[in-house]
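TA notes. Do not distribute before section.
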Amino acid sequence: MKFVLLALTLTALLPAADLDRDSLDDATEQTLLDQFLPRFYVSKGECDLAPAEFDSRSAEPRVVARNGVIYGQAFPYPSADGTRRVELHYHHLWARDCGRGGHPLDAEHVSALVSESSGRWRADYWLAAAHEGTVCDRGMARPAGVEARAEVWISARKHASFLSVAECNRGGCGGDSCTEPRKLAVSRVVNLGQPGALMPGMQWAASSQWPLLGKMGSDFSPPLLASLDTRDGLTPTAASLRGVHTTLAVGNKPVTALDTAAAKTGSALDASATGTGNFLKRAARGVGRFLGGR
C-alpha cells in the first residue's frame, strides 16, 4: 500500500508530457482535439474514398490505409487579456487529388480557436481552408456561435474544406462541388505535434513531397479576428479578387471544351494534323493545372 501511495505521489510531482515542446501538455492537447472534432461530410462516390493514415516508420508520406484518420494540432494562442486560448487544426490528408490538375498527396485542413473560462472550454471561431495559397483561395472563417463542433463539407476530388454546403456548391475556380454528402466516419484523431517538434512517428509530415508543413502555422491573425468580431456570417480569409474567381470558374467550360476538341481532333485527323490535336491536349492540361492548384 505504501508503495502504491509513493508511486502516485511521484507521478503527481512529475511534469506532464509535452513532446512537441509548446508548453501545452500532450494529454490536454488530445482532450481538446477530441472534444472539438468537426463533423466532416464527403461527397458520394469520392474518388479517393477517405482521408488516409500514413506509415509512422517512414520519413516520406506513405499511405497505409484510407480509413478516415484525422491528424490534429493543438498549440497555445497568445491573448492580450490573459484569456487562455488554444488553436486547433484538423488536417484531412489524402493519397491523391483526383480533380482537374490532380496530383499525388493532398493536404487540407480546418481550424478552430478555443478558449477556457471557469475551467470549461468553448469554441470561439472556425476557419476552413480551400485551395489555400492559390489564386483560387476560397478560405472562409466565422464566429463559432453556440455549437461545440463545426460541420465541414469536403469538395469532391479536390478536398477543399467549406463551412457550408452551399459555399462548396458555389463552384469557384477550383470547380468545387459537394454531391450527396455523407458523414465521414473518423477513426481517430492523431496529434502531429508542431513544426520543428513533430510527434514521434510523424516525420513524414515535413516531407517536401507536399505543402503540409507550411499549413501548420497559425491561421488566426489579429486583423482576421478583428474582422470576425464585426460580423456574424462567413468572412473570406484571402485577399484574392472575386472577379478572378468568376473568370476562372467560367474558364472551366473552355477547359472541358478543349478536352473534347482534343479528343475529336486526335481521332479524326490524319498524321499530318496530329500536331493540332497534341496542341489542344497540352492547352487543356495547362489550363487544368492552373485551375487546379494544390
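Switch to the second chain here.
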Amino acid sequence: MKISNYNIIKKYGDEILVYNSFSKSSLFLDKNSDTAAFENIEAFKKLSKKEQKILIDNGFVIDDNRDEFSEIKYIYQQKYFETNFFNIVLVPSLSCNFKCPYCCEKDYTCGKQNIKKYFSGLKNYAAKNFHLHNVVQISLFGGEPLLYVKECLEFLDWVKQDAEKYGYQYFTSVVTNGSLLTEENFTDLLNHNLYSLQITIDSDKTNHDSMRIFKNGEKTFDLLIEKINKLIPISKDYEKFKFVLRINLNNTTVDKVKTTLECIEKENRKYVHLLIRAIYNTHAYNEKNSNNVNALKEYFDLGMQLGFPVLKEKYNYQTCEACADRKFFYLMPDLSIWKCINDIGYENCKIGNLTDSGEVELIPENIVDWYNSCMSAFSDPECIKCKLLPDCLGGCPLHKCKNHKKSCRTFDMACLPFIY
C-alpha cells in the first residue's frame, strides 16, 4: 500500500480537515489529532485494522500499483470527448432588464439580435443533431433569458416531441435574475425536466439594492425574496430539481449574509442549494473587494446551520464549472458558437457559426487552442505535482487561452463544496 498523492490537510479553527481531491472523501479530526498516517505509510501501518480500512475505503491510502495521475488524465479526456451527453446553452439575446455594474456582457451586443431567425436556425440544428445523443441538456442564459420565455418554451415543446420520437432524454436549466419568474412559466419549465434554476442575491439587502437593480433604478431585493418563497413550494414534488441561490460576496460579512438567508422561510430552506462566490474583476468591472475565494467555509457553514444544503460541484474532473469541457457550447444571438462568454471581447473563444439551415461552420484553430488550454495541466510540472489537480485541472481555460498561463483555483473554490 502507499499514500495517495492527493491527500490535503487543512486546519479550520478547532478541527483538522483531511480531504482527498481524487476520491472526494473528507474527514474532520480533533485539532490535536495525529495526521501522520495520511502522509506516511509507516505511520499508517501502526493504525488498527479498523482505522486502516477507513483510510483505504476512502482513498487516502491506495494499492501500490495504482497510478492516480494516469487515471485522472484518462477520466478527464473521456469526459472531454464524451458524445452521449450534449449541452447547449441558449443565449437568444444579451438584453437584460437589470443594470448590474459588474456584468461582463454589458459593453457588447454580439451581433444584431433577431429572435425569430435565432430559434429557426436553432430548431434546424436540433432536428439534425439532438437525436444523435442519449442525453441533451438545454440551458437558458442571457442577458435575461426570460425576456423571451415564450419563444424558449415553444422550442422546448418541440424538443419534447423530438425526444419522444427518437428516444433521447432532455433536461433543462435556467440562469435568471428572477424578476420575470411567474408561477405559470416556472411550472412550464419544471414540466420540461428542469433540473436547475439559479437566481443571484448580492450579499445583503443594502448591497443588493445598490448593485442588482432594474434599468430604471428600481430595487429588487424584496421582489426576489418574495418570489423565492412563493415559488419554492411549487417545486417540492419535483425530486430531481434544484433551486440554486447564488450569493455574491462583495465587501460583506457573514452577519450581513445571514440577514439575507434568514429571509428565506424555514420550511423552504432545505430546497434551496447555496452557491457562494466572491465577485471578481473583469474588463467591465474593477473594484476592491474584501471578500475572496480563499474564505468561503464560514459562509458555507452559516448556510448549513440555517438549514440550507450546499450545492455540490457537479462537473467532476473538468476544468470549469461553466463551460464544462464536454460537448458543450453557447449559441449566441447572431448564431455564433462559443466555448465561453465571460469575455465576449476575446473572439478566440468563438469556435464556429450556425447557418440558418442548421449547419455548423467550425473554426478549427480556435477549437484546437481551447483543447490545448484544457489539457495543459497534464504537461505542466506544477500541476502534475499539485494535490488540487483533480479539482482544479489547471484552472480557467479562458484565462489560459488569453494569457498563455494558468490561473489556479483555490481550495475553497475547487474542493470545499465536496465536504458538505
